[in-house]
Design brief:
With 174 residues, this protein is mainly α. The protein is 53% helix and 11% strand. It has two domains: 1-47, no CATH class; 50-173, Multidrug-efflux Transporter Regulator, Chain: A, Domain 2, CATH 1.10.1660. It contains five helices and four strands. Keywords: DNA-binding. InterPro entries: DNA-bd_dom_put_sf (IPR009061), MerR-type_HTH_dom (IPR000551), MerR_fam (IPR047057). Pfam families: MerR_1.
Length: 174
């Protein structure tokens, strides 16, 4: 599909900022998007297209074709369109969903919880409260793990300082 109008091309992007994931439509892509915090991550979409093969999605997301098929099989991916020859055709909306799933994966959300979240999304607006609860519980788990990692990092910093001081004293004597 070619864009032939003189208006700026509208490109959908997924913005992750402060833990929220939202889709924005921005003129001429992500460089025009308002930057409201330092954690923003933009995932630009190829202009003028809204159908991608599984290999294109794999290249774009870093997921393997096998993983994408598995996501579909277990119900983590919404219905993926098929071409007249039966090949999967992913949309920009699918790419946005995969970006969110990737963030949930990075935070350590169990696959069963991600699948449950996907089911709730498909069930519609009546599930907002349950979706919020699921994400709130998960956020608390993430915060707990972050606190554990910060404590572990403090121990590592302490040990590194001990070895650096010992090396410095040895070289001064030396």
């Amino acid at each position: 599909m070619t864009v032939t109008r003189s208006e700026p091309v509208i490109e959908e992007t997924v913005m992750t900022c402060g833990g929220a994931v939202s889709t924005q439509r921005t003129p001429d892509g992500p460089q025009w998007a308002a930057r409201s915090c330092a954690q923003e991550v933009f995932h630009p979409r190829p202009t003028g297209r809204d159908r991608y093969s599984i290999s294109e999605v794999a290249a774009h997301t870093g997921l393997s074709a096998h993983t994408l098929r598995w996501y579909e099989r277990i119900g983590l991916m919404p219905h993926v369109d098929r071409s007249h020859t039966g090949q999967r055709r992913f949309t920009n909306r699918d790419l946005d969903w995969l970006a969110l799933v990737g963030k949930l994966r990075l935070t350590g959300m169990p696959v069963a919880d991600m699948v449950r979240f996907a089911e709730l999304v498909r069930a519609g607006d009546a599930t907002f409260a349950e979706r919020e609860r699921l994400l709130t519980v998960h956020r608390e788990n993430v915060r707990h793990r972050i606190a554990e990692l910060q404590s572990t990092l403090a121990v590592l910093d302490y040990k590194i300082d001990i070895y650096a001081d010992a090396r410095r004293r040895a070289s001064e004597r030396g």
